[in-house]
Amino acid sequence: DAKTTQPNSMESNEEEPVHLPCNHSTISGTDYIHWYRQLPSQGPEYVIHGLTSNVNNRMASLAIAEDRKSSTLILHRATLRDAAVYYCILRDLNDMRFGAGTRLTVKP
Amino acid sequence: DTEVTQTPKHLVMGMTNKKSLKCEQHMGHRAMYWYKQKAKKPPELMFVYSYEKLSINESVPSRFSPECPNSSLLNLHLHALQPEDSALYLCASSPERWSSGAQIPINEQFFGPGTRLTVL
After folding, report:
1. Residue A102: how many CB atoms within 10 A of its CB?
2. From the list B55, B108, B112, which residue is nearest A43 (CB)?
3. Chain B: closest CA distance from residue A42 (Å)
4. A36 contacts in B (CB within 8 Å)?
5. How far is C-alpha B104 from the geometric centre of its chain's CA atoms?
6. How close does chain A come to B75, measured CA to CA in Å?
7. Which candidate in B48, B97, B109 is best for mutational testing of the A interface (most A CBs within 10 A)?
8. Tens-place pLDDT, residues B49-102
9. Nearest CA among B67, B1, B83 for reference residue B32
């Protein structure tokens, strides 16, 4: 059973912000929300994670809904190098199951 | 050293062959993982080792046999594979950082570049 739901694909223009949504309506109180991305021909790369509060790091921001049933990954200024598949994952203990992910295309 | 290395990068094997995939990290991580990824699909978790002990086995067929000889090394032994086992095999590691109280890991995983396996 998929624990997260994401759009199959999204497009963005270079230099513009991108908001990647994720629904996780069955999230439990102990699930952390993780985001990874996978560039072509590479292994997945950690982006950001959070539990309840919004989080910022050098790569992105994570906005988590108050009921925790959805979250949004925000890339503040998309570059061509951000074109990748972005995965939203609920992390519990050592379990990390990837959903289908969102393929982000960035147009110059 | 903040890398996870995997060897070989590519492997072609027949259904009767025995081969091994190797994964190494020198970041002091105590959890290591094997994933299988088919083309245009997300990675699927196969095995998890925590402190060199197998903690998760996702009902993987016995023709895949993991081994963790020490905290830096993870192997995946392959025997009598089928053509449908052709895929990218990814290794990952993570530090054992736990949230206070809940004992839930909040640590990120570091992935290697993968081994592309073709079974003829």
Report:
1. 21
2. B112
3. 5
4. 109
5. 21
6. 17
7. B109
8. 988 989 878 889 999 999 999 989 999 999 999 999 999 999 999 886 555 554
9. B67
For residues B7-36, one letter each, b for 16 or more C-beta atoms within 10 angstroms of the residue's C-beta and e for the rest, the string is eeeebebeeeeebebebbbeeebebbbbbb
DSSP 3-state of B27? coil
Is residue B66 less than 8 Å (CB to CB) from chain A? Answer: no
Tell me which DSSP letter residue A51 carries. Answer: S
**Cβ-Cβ contacts under 8 Å, B102 against chain A:** 30
- Name the band, by pLDDT with cuts 50, 70 and 90, for residue A29: confident
Lowest-confidence region among A27-36, A69-78, B31-40, B75-84: A27-36
Residue to substitute from B68, B88, B98, B108, interface A, most A β-carbons within 10 A: B108
% of chain A at pLDDT higher than 70: 95
Q: How far is CA A93 from CA A31, A44, B52, B93, B104, in A?
A: 9, 19, 16, 14, 5
Q: What is the mean pLDDT of chain A?
A: 92
A100 to chain B: nearest residue by CA? B42
If you ran DSSP here, which 8-state letter would residue A11 be given?
A: E
Residues B17-39: tens digit of each pLDDT: 999 999 999 998 888 999 999 99
The residue type found at B49 is: Y
